[in-house]
Amino acid sequence: MIAVIVLTHNRAHLLERCVEDVLGRVSEKTQEIIIWDNASDDGTREYLEGIHGPRIQVVRHPENIGTNAYAPAVKLTRAPYIVELDDDVIEAPQGWDAILLDAFLKIPQIGYLVADLKEDPNDSAYRYLKYAKEERKVFTRKEVNGVTILEGPTGGGCSMTSREIYDRVGGFRQHRKLIFWHEAASYVRDVRKLGYRTAILEDLKVWHAGSPFYSTTSPAKLAFHAHRRRAEARKNFAKRLILSIPFVSALNERHRWFSPPHHYVPPDLRPTQQDRPPSP
Question: For the whole model, what pTM was predicted?
Answer without folding.
Answer: 0.89
